[in-house]
Design goal:
The structure holds two protein chains of two kinds. Helices cover 10% and strands 50% of the residues of chain A. Chain A has one domain. Chain A is mostly beta strands. Chain A is globular. Chain B is α/β, with parallel strands linked by helices. In chain B, 36% of the residues lie in helices and 28% in strands. In chain B, helix 3 runs parallel beside helix 5, helix 4 packs across helix 5 and helix 5 packs parallel to helix 6. The chains are: A mainly beta, B alpha/beta.
């Protein structure tokens, strides 16, 4: 992975982009940009959103040890980010997601799903910040980790809010698939390992556009 | 033929089923009724090898195969289907994905996708069910009645030879109960499948005529009769029906 800043890129209009070409993006006013990311490229990358800009990030990793930090600056009035991430890992991974609500009426929706196949450590740290005066902002954080073995994983669902007029929700769950889910699928004749695979696939794919990523 | 012999079952050291005996021949319809907490649903789950229950004594055989030595999926692949009392929702896994996997594992390695989807869509139509949910997460956002219909869609696709309906009528309105019942009856008539119906109310028996009605109490079958027994229970309650001498 590269941590050197390549050129900053400005994205405007309505576009769907596969992968990251640089580590800093400016999203123009009134744009709708979807970025689908399937492998890590930079240790740290930044998105700056202008007024009414809407950024959708769908990200799926199936890689080795990763440490990654992402900064999303909601600079423009009414700007919005939907960040949907899934990872399937056998290795230690650390993800820091910083969302800065730097204007009024800004929206952030962060959904992280991870499946840890062994005793590795997966960390999701989500830092959502709203400074005083940035009213009517909406924040949602949902991070879930499914552990297939012992738990060494951590979720830090941080909300740093200095404004009363804000809707903020955060949730963090670490656990195993429910026994009833496996049993239900097995009552249809599906073997335990195939039932588990179906659940993993559904858990990881469900929120990143319903596409077949694995 | 399903043959349950002297079956005793415990959950966390609490005895639920006590020396229960029941034989269901091919094509027969049996109904088990009884007060809450008497072990009716436990019986269905034990047949499906739910490991929350410990069998302390007895045997369950289906077509001479020892069910107690099998896993849940192996029991299902013998042709036994459980329509659950509370079908759960599963995030991210669609009905189509689940049923396709179930058919693939049953040996239809390269299932004909066109045939599969056509059959699935027909099943949805026959149950008056919204086809747009075929690729949605299983039971997510469904009402109680819709979840029960979804179970019957699974039955029609997986084509079992022995069907356990655990309170398929609870949480279902009259119109939908009619639709569900007619689909079960049609499948039963086409396949000669056996039915084990667990219920509190005899309404479903207006559509599906049972060969035998059993009353279960304290973990055992205490009385067996014909469909008249179900009417008697509705009129007089369990205790009075148990006490009443057969004519």
């Amino acid at each position: 992975m590269n941590s050197i800043i390549v050129d900053k890129v400005k994205l405007c209009g309505e576009k769907i982009i596969d992968g990251l070409q640089c580590n800093t993006y400016d999203i123009c006013k009134d744009s709708l940009i979807t970025i689908n990311i399937k492998s890590p490229k930079y240790k740290k990358y930044v998105f700056n959103l202008e007024e009414n800009a809407h950024l959708i990030i769908n990200k799926f990793y199936q890689e080795e040890d990763i440490e990654e930090e992402i900064i999303i600056n909601l600079n423009g009035f009414n700007s919005r980010v939907d960040y949907n991430f899934s990872t399937l890992t056998y290795h230690d991974q650390k993800y820091i997601i910083n969302i800065n609500h730097n204007n009024k009426n800004t929206i952030s929706n962060v959904v992280n799903h991870g499946v840890v196949m062994n005793d590795s450590k997966l960390l999701f740290e989500v830092n959502s910040t709203v400074k005083k005066g940035n009213k009517n902002s909406k924040l949602n954080q949902e991070s879930k980790i499914i552990i297939m073995s012992s738990n060494n994983s951590i979720i830090k669902p941080n909300l740093f809010i200095d404004e009363y007029d804000v809707d903020a929700i955060h949730s963090a769950t670490i656990g195993k698939f429910r026994k009833e889910e496996i049993f239900y699928l097995m009552t249809k004749g599906i073997k335990e390992k195939d039932a588990t695979f179906l659940l993993i696939k559904g858990f990881l794919n469900g929120h990143i556009g319903g596409e077949l990523w694995i | 033929m399903l043959k349950i012999h002297n079956l005793s079952v415990e959950v966390k050291d609490k005895k639920i089923l006590k020396d229960l005996n029941l034989t269901i021949n091919d094509g027969e319809v049996h109904v088990i009724m009884g007060p809450n907490g008497t072990g009716k649903s436990t019986l269905s789950k034990v047949i499906m090898r739910d490991d929350n229950f410990t069998v302390t004594k007895g045997t369950i055989k289906y077509n001479d195969k020892d069910i107690l030595s099998l896993t849940t999926d192996e029991v299902a692949r013998l042709g036994i289907f459980l329509a659950m009392q509370y079908p759960i929702s599963i995030e991210g896994v669609s009905n189509a994905d689940m049923l396709k996997s179930a058919l693939t594992i049953r040996g239809e390695k390269n299932i004909n996708l066109f045939k599969f989807i056509t059959e699935l869509e027909n099943a949805y139509d026959e149950l008056n069910f919204d086809k747009s949910t075929i690729h949605s997460s299983i039971n997510e956002g469904f009402s109680g009645g819709e979840r029960k219909k979804n179970e019957i869609i699974g039955m029609k696709i997986l084509k079992p030879s022995f069907i356990i309906l655990d309170e398929i009528d609870s949480g279902v309105d009259v119109d939908n109960l009619k639709v569900i019942s007619s689909n079960i009856l049609k499948y039963k008539n086409e396949s000669n499948a056996s039915l084990l119906i667990i219920t509190h109310y005899p309404h479903i028996l207006n559509y599906i005529k049972p060969d035998y009605v059993h009353i279960m109490k304290d973990g055992n079958i205490v009385k067996t009769g014909t469909s008249h027994l179900a009417d008697e229970i509705l009129k007089e309650g369990y205790e009075a029906s148990i006490m009443k001498e057969d004519l």
